[in-house]
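Budget justification, computational time. The allocation requested in the original proposal was used primarily to generate structure tokens for proteins on the priority list. As evidence of use, we reproduce two of the resulting records. The first is shown immediately below.
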Amino acid sequence: MKGSELANYRFSKVGETLNRLQLESERVQMMQVAISEYDKLPDMINQFVEKVKEIGPNPFKGF
């Protein structure tokens, strides 16, 4: 439980840093999956990929 709390706190700092760098914090996401829910992992990854595709390329990368 303590590890999850620490991970959530650190992840919030990642989002703040990305926003300060003018990068979309939505490009990173933290998910917790129990070992018994391994079958849900491919769908979770696919949903995240679709979300990043909707956001599009980073306008500061010059693509």
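The second record produced under the same allocation is shown here.
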Amino acid sequence: MSIKTKEDIIILIKEDEWMMSVLAAVKTLDLPDYWVCAGFVRSKIWDVLHQFTGRTPLSDIDVIYFDKNNLECIL
């Protein structure tokens, strides 16, 4: 598959049962303004562009969010 647009990436993700299950699991957390990002998307694109038959293993899945009602910084 050729990846030229964001729509192409969305199609790739929607067709990937595992990725959709991850997105569904994150949705259950009910986080405000959240994003699943970094390697989760990058690895999918990498695998498709290099025609890998298996998924590149991920050590973690990054989920970020912004809660305007909680601006405290905990270090």
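A brief technical remark on that second record: The longest strand covers residues 34-37.
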